[in-house]
Fold these 2 entries.
Entry 1:
Amino acid sequence: MLEPVRESFRSGRSLVWSRVNDLPDYVYFDHSIHINKGVGCRDCHGPVDQMPLMWQESTLQMEWCLNCHRQPEKFLRPREQVFNMRYEQPGPRQPVTLDGKAFTSQLDLGNYLKDKYHVRTVQDITSCYTCHR
Amino acid sequence: MESQVNREGPSQPERREQERVSAEAVCPTKKELLYQISGTASGKKQLTRYDFEAALAALDSGDAPEYWRSLEELAGTKEFQEQLHREFPKGASEWLDPVSRRGFLKLMGASVALAGLTGCIRQPLEPIVPYVRQPENQVLGKPMFYATAMTLSGYGRPLLVRSNEGRPSKIEGNPEHPVSMGGSDIFSQASVLDLYDPDRLQTMIYEGEIRTWPSFLGGVRGQIAAQQAVQGAGLRILTETVASPTLAAQIRGVLQRFPGAKWYQWDPVNRDNVRAGAQMAFGQFVHTQYRLTDADVIVSLDANFLSPEFPGFTKYAREFSSRRRPETNPAARPFTTANYTALPDRPINRFYSIESTPTNTGAKADHHIPVRFSDVEKYARILASAVGVNAGGGNANSDLDGKVLAAAVKDLQAHRGTSVVIAGEQQPPIVHALAHAMNEALGNVGKTVFYTEPVEANPTDQMAGLKELVSDMWVGKVDMIVITALILSTMRRST
């Protein structure tokens, strides 16, 4: 399975990876802020741990981005759970505990996290300049 | 990498055509960039073969212009005349050809395509190509800083270059170097663009065509053998001012093997006058350095020592400004850099400037005398005679000048050992010799003025050297001439 890597090392030619999730060049996208503010990997990239070969799960259209930017409380999760592929949003039967509090609804948790992680207001993160610099 | 990219997207050839046509409309150089990225056969940059015959014919016919900057200009070919008269190169005029409705829509579509609005559908494939062997210490996204130097007329300027994944992006002075202390100059700052110069040679070129290194070796072997037979009598080496000991040793090695060969150095703006002045004063070439922190009085004879042309100017600028502080309170405003502590216990210095053109340095002068370039020598003689050098004396051009000169003399005499007289680089050798004599008479040597071995590996009279080389070439004594890169780059830019 690693033969391409060994071949690349021997010949000195790089492995050419195809870029699956790609945004147009006129868009400024900062990956780190999404991870730090509690956006899970799976929310945008899909269940990558179950993909035999990577595919693009979401449309990556602007309207898809805005869907979350307009209501981040519906999608935020605790930072510790960002990499967790099996994470489920809190519900009446599966609470999510954070800072000693048990949350049973995503909206409660989302609003709490918006405060905690200093997520900017909807007006800020849906302004044109945020992405089209 | 280009061949491995499999560009997806609708109507690929048509898309490239759209990009090509509208890119030409945008600007000719963008066309070249697009060609390099997409690698279309029609767009591969063709290097034109130099038309030596036409140029030689022009020389022989006696019709040639006396000054020319490129072989095409010398030959006076029709293409060159045409190029002179067209404001934009030929490629751009295709835009003005009568365009059919279909063509117009294609062009409009192309500009939309370039604007990227078709990005809504699916992005064209952008491969990620990682390093096979990543450079040491590199973290992708974090810049690396390299300490390096840039040569300017032979003198190295210490620099710190910021490199993002191997792309140099910003140049600063090296803060740990005692000469620059973090300062840089306009030439160093601009030199980052040199690294992205599209005219920079990337391959070996022979008469306009790309060649390989082995073919160069093969071609030159015959010449070298012929030169060996005559002890190198027809071999000449023309370089810029060389201060690098390594390069100088290598060239001397060549001269040892070919005893008849000669090495010339040439810089268009060189320090011949400085060297000749030192020769006149000391009988040998020396390099003069100043320590302006210890100077209470500075007299400049058209010396632009706060400006990038002057070797070591970053140090002089810092030293000069460290003495421009009026406070005598030690607690006030410590001047903190790596190599300088506050000098508030010393009084502010006084700077007299005699100069022939408005300069940054003169703007900082406390007393400023503007004179003609040729009169600087006269004023230097007046100053020198007044401080005890046998220089002939004279009269200033005006009463005011005379008063300022008298004041300068008084100051210099009151500050023996803590003053300095600096002569301008381009002033004739006698002015340099007078400055040396004045510094000696005032006891400044070893306190504010220091003489060291010449920085150039082989200080020569460059103008005389160039004249000798050219006259040798005219009579046909020169069979083989090796010209080094820096001179060649200035020649090539003018072609």
Entry 2:
Amino acid sequence: MWENRCKIAVSGVGFSKVSRSADIPLAAHALTAVKEAVADSGLQMSDIDGLATYPELPATGHAEIDGISVVSVNCMMAMLKLPNLTWHIQVGTTNIGGAVQQAVNALLAGVCKYAVVWRAMHNPRGTYQNLPGTFAHGATQFTAPYGFGGPGQGMAVAYTRWLERHNQSREKMATLAVTQRKHTQHNPHAYFYGTPLTREDYFASRMVAYPFCLFDCDIPVQGAVAIVLTTADRARDLKPKPAYIAGYGQRLHFEVAGRIGSLSSYMEGGSSSAKLTWERSGFGPKDVDVAQIYDGFSASVIYGLESYGFCKEGEALDFIQNGRIELDGALPLNTFGGSLGTGRIHGLWHIIEGALQASGRAGSRQVKDANVSFVGASAPIVTGTTFIFVGDPY
Amino acid sequence: MSDWSKVTRPIPVPNEWTQPFWDAAKRNVLELQRCQSCGHFQHPPYATCVQCMGIDLKFEPVRGGGAIYAYTIMYHTGDKRFASAVPYASIIVELDEAPGALLAGNLLSAAAWRFSSRS
């Protein structure tokens, strides 16, 4: 087991408003979320001495403008003017989960005391995947000419392969979409708070990239979320009950870009990451009381459940049926609504919910007696960061 | 069926790894990158062999027959250049002579088609 388990904790969380329009600049959203996370901890802004993020806008063909379409570490540094700043990082290959993990590492190394991590996501004008120009460069030269545009199609082809190989039907995914939307009704920050979804809605919705219909895809939104991390002893001096990090993992497998459709990329990415988390924490899938699994596209949940070890390959669509993923089920899943409920804010919201559930702070959607709280913070093919939070340190 | 006549496909920009593929295509020949150390075919082309890390890679001709490895049907006009063809089938093909090489394409027409159950 990891000797540094439960030495770092999440001590506060914050959210900006989530909306479709980009009326106020993204930097303002990020600032709101960060301020709220600091206040939630019971800290002053001047206590913050560590900054970390993953800033990329995962949409094609839009200019990267700091403060407008992304919020970098430099942008946050300029806004906050922290008097005691001693550490910062902006990650590249590991998505936002990696920024959280680097903050854990920095705190363990003693180079900062209170680190804030944010994820700010922009909803650009026009179509989200805005494929520009006449030419297809790099890996896209073999895919864009055939109408493969954004990640949706790449995930769609893998999903058809999964469905055919395991003789499954996409209709079963209605249970995921509907149950997560039910969870969303306990999450006032979510985009679809107040908007129910029925099985009939799912079956009647328009197809986007078969097998994905509209409700298999998260809706692009403008918004930001943030967390504060600190050492366990400092966390215990603060107001909220800490959510201790019992272990974390990173994807240890990568397939060359452009090789879309391959399921092995998901399975090996997810299992290699989760293996680290299980070994470090000493827990296994059967010990998990509540799980958040990245769901930018619904099929990501399948690859997550299978590659992380919650069920066997090919079984995930059956595994989620019969109330298993409800708040009072055997494995409550995406209890905050997931990206499908909140809108596209990527994995930091999954991490936030994992922490809230572990520390008993999830309000009306709190899973009873939840202690071991698992998070898969991005699709296994992308970055595959995984975490376990606990409320009871050990 | 999709109307491809009005579609303007993005034009591939070859780089030093991929140039031989497109040169062969101009001669109407399908050539894929093959590691001369372990014999592994790979597509898309890469700087090294993804199986054995070999750097002796040459393009060899292969027959175009294969199986549909995966597919999607696009109903959404994400890329406006493809608007007239919506809904259209984008497919991934695994070639019989080059397992492990996955090629993207469009299914332009088919009397009937069956999905490959090869893993």
